Amino acid sequence: MELIHKQKKQLVINQIKNIDDTLIKIKKQLFIATVAYEKYYKRYYNITLTLFIFSSIVTFIDALRLIIIEYVNKSKEILINEHLLTTFVNALLLSLGILITILTSFVRFKNYREILEELREKQNIMIGYIDKYNKQKNNLEFLYQTKEDDIKIEEIEKIKNDIAEYDTILVSTNILQFLTTQDIIKFNNYRLDFEYKKKEILFNYKKKIKTLEETDEENQTQHLTISNNSLSPSCEFFVL
Please, what is the angle between helix 112-145 and helix 82-110, to 10°? Predict the structure, then answer.
């Protein structure tokens, strides 16, 4: 019985380890997906803003041309070649129209909107499964702490099957299809730099806490020493 109990415990430990390894992988992919989303969103936002500005400029120039022509026709003191003005404005509007067409075609060709929607969907999937893995981990930790007779192999197998199902779904959640090799290397460097800075901040925080605790202990020791020294004359008086 004791051997069977140890085997059950080992199964639970193995599943917890598998969950921890999987969570590390998911969090790495989630970080890359987040950085990729920000990258594509920034490009899409900048191009969309540029299109809006160009369209507004086209409308403004066309309206300004009509106002100038109308004013020139009413005022005979101002000599402006209407044909030359119209030609210049039309050439400018044509140039801006070409730029707008190029940018619009570029956005459609790159499928920024679809990529952003898919990345957001995959982020939500990974966040949801992180929560599911953590719940299964809590269940396994609860099983590990139960008594020998209360651990049922059926419960362990059920959790194991659920985890295998999660793994299958997450394998299909591929974010690398939206990224080039150069992007993957760059985003991994971002992640490593982020983790290094996070560990550095945590290390400095612990170091500062330790320094404050040591300083507090020194102050308490000094205060105690001063108190003892202040009491020593009266003690000598009573001894005499």
Answer: 30
Q: Which two tokens stand for residue 75?
A: 């005022």
Segment 165-190, tens digit of pLDDT:
888 888 877 777 767 677 777 777 77
Looking at the predicted structure, is the pLDDT value of residue 49 above 90? yes
pLDDT one-digit tens code per residue, 109-159: 888 888 888 888 888 999 999 999 999 888 888 877 765 556 677 888 888
Structure tokens at 99: 């730029």
Quote the CA–CA distance of 5 and 146 in Å, as a whole number. 11
Question: Which of these, 120, 114, 116, lies nearest to 41 by C-alpha position?
Answer: 116
Q: Which residues of 114-141 are buried (b: 16+ CB within 10 A; e: fewer)?
A: ebbebbeebbebbeebeeebeebbebbe
Per-residue pLDDT, averaged over 78-92, amounts to 77
Neighbours of 73 (CB within 10 A): 11
Question: Which pair of tokens denotes residue 141?
Answer: 């930790």
Q: What is the DSSP letter of 150?
A: G
Q: Is the pLDDT of residue 27 over 70?
A: yes
Q: How far is CA 17 from the centre of its chain?
A: 25
What are the residue boundaries of the structural domains of the chain, listed by start? 2-175, 180-240
Closest among 128, 125, 123 to 37, alpha carbons compared: 123
